[in-house]
Amino acid sequence: MAVEQAAGQGPTAGEYIVHHLTHLQNQTPKGVFDLSVFNLDSLFFSISLGVVACWLLWLGARKATSGAPGRFQAAVEILVEMVDNQAKGIVHNANSRKFVAPLALTVFVWIFLMNAMDLLPVDLLPWIWERIYGAAGGDPHHAYLRVVAPADLSVSLGMSLAVLLISLYYNVKIKSARGWVHELFTAPFGTSKNPLAAFVLGAVNFAMQMVEFIAKTVSHGMRLFGNMYAGELIFLLIALMGGAFSLSGTGIALAAGHIIAGTAWAIFHILIITLQAFIFMMLTLIYVGQAHDAH
């Protein structure tokens, strides 16, 4: 890419970043909220890695033995025990944990795998896709591909919305529909025997409950999206250091900085992708656990 840029044919640094941050879509959006547009790359990688996550967990369960476990089985058992302990400390209903604990485990593994795509060289899969797209008769310059699904806001918010729906389900299941509706209008400030005061408090309580649901859902998804988007952008900036070195043909400092910065950020990013998967899992458990608590 840098060699093409030197010949006046390649993109600028800004165009390079914009190209890497553009999704492969089924059609050109007609507006900001065009619901007929799908980010095909996010769908492909999230679904594919979801299948891989389920397959890995199934494989761990299938190969489980009562004897001395192998390394893979030991790793899966440690992970399962960690999630189960967290679920027991947050969700106190044993019947609910039969669904919530496996859900939290799947969420952790799934998000970790999607986040780990950020550790691949930023030009590797887009370069492969450009060759495939070009061989199919398309313009390689329009072969967009983003591989980190959580860096797509629609994916992160979609997952947080799914957690919200699960929380609402358990609110109704545990408290009954009538009990939950009663809670919406009586918590957190209670009610009053005075009709006017009861009406005012009910309106305020309901508004506060809606704000809480919206804030939890938005922050849940935005936290994951923001961290992964920032990580993806930093990898692109580091890649540009290598491009600047190859463009000039000199500048050993840029080459060394590219290698050192890329290695250091990749090592540090391992912590970030794991931490973000863990935080999303823990918040899922917390929000579902809150649905079991009566005010």
Q: How would you describe the oligomerization state of the chains in this entry?
A: single chain
Binned, the helix content reads over 70%
Number of helices: 9
Shape: globular
Euclidean distance between termini CA atoms? 60 Å
How would you describe this protein?
- It is a single chain.
- By secondary structure, the protein is an all-alpha fold.
- It has one domain (14-292).
- 75% of the residues lie in helices and 0% in strands.
- The protein contains 9 helices and no strands.
- The chain has helices at residues 2-6, 13-20, 40-62, 71-90, 94-116, 124-135, 153-186, 195-248, 252-292.
- Helix 4 packs across helix 5 (94-116).
- The protein is globular, with a radius of gyration of 24 Å.
- The model is unreliable at 1-8 (pLDDT under 50).
Notable characteristics:
295 residues, mainly alpha, 75% helix, globular, disordered N terminus
Question: What topology emerges from the helices and strands here?
Answer:
Layout: H1 2-6, H2 13-20, H3 40-62, H4 71-90, H5 94-116, H6 124-135, H7 153-186, H8 195-248, H9 252-292
Helix pairs in contact: 3-5, 4-5, 5-9, 7-8, 7-9, 8-9
